[in-house]
Amino acid sequence: MFSEDNKERITKVVEVSRTVLHYAWIPLIIYVGYTRSNPQPSLIKLISPLA
Amino acid sequence: MSSAPSFSEKAGLPDLTPTPSFLEPQPKSSSYLDAIAPLTNTWNRYSAWRESFGLPNPGSTEQLTKEVKGTLATNFIFEGGRADLTKSLSANPAFQVTHSFALGSEAQPASYNFNTVYAKENLMMMGGFDHDGNVNARLNQGWTANSISKLQAQFSSQAGHNMLQMEHDYNGTDYNLNVKAMNLWPTDLTGVYIGSYLQSVTKNLALGVEGLYQRPTPDMSELSTSYIAKYTADKKDWIATALVQPSGIVTTSYWHKLSDKVEVAADLQLIAAPTRRDALATLGVKYELRMAGFRAQVDSTGKVAAVLEQRFAPTLAFLLSGEIDHFKSTAKVGAGVMIETSTLTPEEMGMPPQ
């Protein structure tokens, strides 16, 4: 169905997107939540457990 | 006469009203749809005929024992100390972060977890990571009121601990259809596929079937089915469910809401495979009081457990959990605190001013 070359490429794409999601998923949610929040919270309150 | 100049000014401006292109005669539907019109007509008539029975939606297979799981203490027992600090940063759209600390458990080492949720009407994004660097992700996207797609993933720095699950759930008027694909690999289509269908047969009874198709390697596959029955009382105050797997596993559950504050649940699991014969019965009760929640349960392996959640303020709760295994003479004790802070004023959260 797929040639060996394409199989390799697909494996690479999956690996790269997995790594990207691993590191970017939480920052993405925090960014989306932070920018869409109403009212916008302060950054320190967002990150620190104690503030 | 003062209105006259303004009127002429207005006339000089470019016409901002939308051009009524939609008023031009257009074919009522595209030719593609015309081609399958007999099919859609038949489907619509069939749907109307089914709706005429007035059968309720049975709920999804995953939610089959939702009430039982919420009543039994099994999912709420913990060991050691723990603290959950939740911060609501926005109410609409909902955005909150949670820091969880746990330590002192014999089974698990001390841990730190960070969770964040962002949700609006039809989109939910959830993410969490722990101190080992494992990330879990969830994404729910609703398309219409009764059709929702879900994505669930787990990323780990250790090989072999990654997971990806795609799911689609469709709620019809009297049925629920759910398909899942886990760890699907695009080049050879290996993975685990689960499909389930639950259909209301009468006003109270729903019957369903679930198929699990495993394909670990391209030339190896296995299909196993299980059968589901769910009986909901007229007033929805009690629910009985049964799940039968032909390999010899039977799971039955019963949930009864005795009053606004008291719920009881029973769960029985029977395994009668040729190699193993086993049974586990669990009986539990839940009290939901104004400032406290209490769960107690006893099971046939000799375990007695209780979990108390005492709220001192709407934002501060203490948790106490205990479990004694009488047959093994062991015990588990846990204490925790849950603090919820908000940057919002009560009015912003939609509470009436006091």
- Share of residues in helices of chain B: 10-25%
Task: Name the biggest interface.
Answer: A-B, 28 and 29 residues
| Overall pLDDT score of chain B | 86
Largest sheet of chain B: 19 strands, mixed, barrel
Strand content of chain A: under 5%
Helix and strand sequence of chain A: HH
Q: Kindly, what is the distance between the CA atoms of the first and last residues of chain B, rounded to a whole number of angstroms?
A: 54 Å
Mean pLDDT of chain A: 84
Category from helices, strands and their pairing of chain A = mainly alpha
CATH homologous superfamily designation of chain B: Porin
CATH topology of chain B, what is it called? Answer: Porin
> Poorly predicted ranges of chain A (pLDDT <50, ≥5 residues)?
none
The H/E string of chain B reads HHHHEEEEEEEEEEEEEEEEEEE
Q: What is the number of strand segments of chain A?
A: 0
CATH architecture of chain B: Beta Barrel
Domain module count of chain A: 1
Number of strands of chain B: 19
Number of helices of chain B: 4
Explain what the structure shows.
- The complex is a heterodimer of chains A (51) and B (354).
- Chain A has one domain (4-47).
- Chain A has 51 residues and is an all-alpha fold.
- The relative contact order of chain A is 0.08.
- In chain A, 75% of the residues lie in helices and 0% in strands.
- Chain B has 354 residues and is mostly beta strands.
- Chain B has a single domain, classed as Porin, CATH 2.40.160.10.
- Chain B contains 4 helices and 19 strands.
- Chain B has a 19-stranded mixed barrel.
- Chain A binds chain B through residues 1-2, 6-7, 10-11, 14, 18, 21-23, 25-26, 28-30, 32-34, 36-39, 41-42, 45-46, 49, and chain B through 85, 87, 89-90, 92-93, 95, 97, 99, 114, 116-118, 120, 125-129, 135, 137, 153, 155, 162, 186-187, 343-344, 348.
